[in-house]
Structure formats: C-alpha cells, structure tokens
Specification:
N-(5'-phosphoribosyl)anthranilate isomerase, single chain, about 200 residues, alpha/beta, phosphoribosylanthranilate isomerase activity, PRAI_dom, TrpF_fam, globular, two-stranded antiparallel ribbon, binds the ligand O=C(O)c1ccccc1N[C@@H]1O[C@H](COP(=O)(O)O)[C@@H](O)[C@H]1O, about 20% helix, amino-acid biosynthesis, TIM Barrel, about 25% strand, eight-stranded parallel β-barrel, 10 strands
Length: about 200
C-alpha cells in the first residue's frame, strides 16, 4: 500500500513524514487552501529532502502553463490534478500526472479507463476536509489503480482491508492543526497502512 501525505508546508513535517516511511509528499498550490505553499518555499523544502521520495504538486482548475511552470520551479515529480471542467490537455503537461475524481456517487467509479486515479470525496469548495467516500461503493470494483483519499485516519484504515487499493492519500487526518502535521499521527497512519492487505 503506497502512502502519500499531502499538505506539507514546512521542512520539519516533510522530514518527519519521510521518517515514517511514506512514498510521496504533497504540496498544495491552490491559493485558497490553508495548506497553500508558494513554489519557492516548496522548492526550498524539496532541495533538502533525501532521495527516493516522490514530490507531488496539487493543482485545482489550473491551466497547463501554470502547472508546468510551478512543477518546474518547485521540483514536483508528479502533478495531482483537479480539473472540474475537463478542459486540460494532458499531452501539454511536462510532468507525469494523476487525475483526481471528486466522487459524488457510485456512478463516478464506473467507466473509468485503465489509468491510475486519485479518488476523493466530493465536497463543496475543495478537499482536505476529512470527508469519506462510502466504501461499499467499491465492492465488486477493481481498486488496484485507485489511490483513496478523503477522511482517512489511523483509526479507520483497517476498513480498507481486502479492497486492494493501490494507495492512500491523507491530509487532515494526520494534522495537529490546519497546515501543521502531527508526527505521532503520521507514525500511526503509516504503521496502519503497512498492515493493510
Ligand atoms: O489539502 C487541501 O487543502 C486541499 C485543497 C484543495 C483540494 C484538495 C485538498 N486536499 C486533498 O484532499 C484529499 C483529502 O484530504 P483529507 O485527508 O480528507 O484531509 C487529499 O487528496 C488531499 O490531497
């Protein structure tokens, strides 16, 4: 089970997250988020990271140029993309990407192609507020290319057993306050994630 911790705003949280064994760190380039980080500050953090950790930039309804420029400046290796109006031309992106599906109903899980998707619960405004997707919607669906997000915590991760998700993404569930991660919550989260089958 791959684990991404999203909403990194400072070096200490990034290093604490890495020490728990996470696979990816997320940086929010969405100005209305309490976890927003400037590309320059993200780059300063990324420059101090050890190898073998993927850096992921989160974008909300931005155009290709903006995504390319920020990923280049901030040294993001993957773009996590919310594109509500489906207008992005992915061919124009200079960085690998994963599309976010903001899941409102079980219908949104049907007819997806063979790509990897990050699935987050639909909320008015945007994510990072701890809302969950109903797990029963995934019964009888192949979850092996899905990264599940939305309302995950060390206490509810056990419920994911046997679904076969590729990975999980968490933000508010490992915070002590908005934009500040809790070292202990990250340790507990990653420990539980490693036990999921
Ligand atoms: O984290 C944010 O502030 C954010 C802002 C806008 C869109 C998405 C955002 N976060 C993403 O939301 C999901 C779930 O987060 P949570 O664990 O429920 O708090 C996750 O993919 C974050 O990357």
């Amino acid at each position: 089970m791959r684990v991404k911790i999203c909403g990194i705003t400072n070096l200490q949280d990034a290093l604490d997250a890495i020490n728990t064994g996470v696979d990816a760190l997320g940086f929010v380039f969405y100005a209305d988020s309490p976890r927003y980080i400037t590309p320059l500050k993200a780059k300063e953090i990324v420059d101090k990271l050890p190898p073998f950790v993927q850096t992921v930039g989160l974008f909300v309804n931005e155009n290709e140029n903006f995504i390319n420029e920020v990923c280049s400046e901030a040294k993001m290796q993957l773009a996590q993309i919310i594109d509500d109006n489906d207008i992005l031309d992915y061919e124009l992106l200079e960085v690998k990407s994963v599309k976010v599906i903001r899941v409102k109903s079980q219908k949104d899980l049907k007819n997806l192609n063979n790509d990897y998707y990050l699935l987050d619960a639909f909320v008015d405004g945007f994510g990072g507020v701890g809302k969950r997707i109903a797990l029963e919607w995934f019964e009888d669906i192949d979850c092996s290319r899905f990264i599940l997000a939305g309302g995950l915590t060390s206490s509810n991760l056990k419920e994911l057993n046997n679904y076969g998700f590729y990975g999980v993404d968490v933000s508010s569930g490992v915070e002590e306050s908005k934009g500040k991660k809790s070292k202990q919550k990250m340790i507990d989260f990653v420990k539980e994630a490693n036990e999921i089958k």
